[in-house]
Each structure stands twice: as structure tokens, then as C-alpha cells.
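go over whats below:
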Amino acid sequence: MKKRSNFLKTLFVFIFIVLCYLSCSSIYASEKWQGVDESVIERFAKSFGIEPKEPLINTDQGDLLLFLFLVSGGVSGFIAGYYWRVLTEQRDKKSRQRIIS
């Protein structure tokens, strides 16, 4: 019985390694995937004669997108921390009715 369990563990580890290798190699070997904007929306826009425009805030420059995610995470973390007691404490039905109304 012990040999069988060791064999199954080894088999699962081998399958996991093979799947990781196949997924990583297929990602790096293939060309860049097109998003919905490029593959669908731009095609329909060109068929109607509408050319694409530059975005108002170009987040492709440097780490601007990373900074925006950092700021939004900080703001949402502050709000959740500020209202943590309201989010987590138990109340009876009367206090819930006062909050709702």
C-alpha cells in the first residue's frame, strides 16, 4: 500500500511539472495575444469609418498604472480600516433597524 501512495504522489508531481512547463512554454512561444479592443472594437470602428484616438490619460507610460493601483488600494484600505468595527461587529435587530431607517 505504501508503494502505491508513493507512486501516486510521484505521478501527481510529475503531471504538475509537465503542465507548468507546457503552460509556460506556450505563453512565451506564441505571439502577443490581441485584446478585445484590438480584435473586435477596432475592426467594427474601421468598418464604420471611425479611427482610433489616443487615450486621455495614457497609462502605458512608465509605472503610472502601477501607481494608480497603489493609490486606489491605499484609499480602499484606509476606508475599510476606518469602518472595520462597523463591518465586523455583531448587532441585535433593533440596532440594525436604526441604521437602516
In short: The radius of gyration is 26 Å.
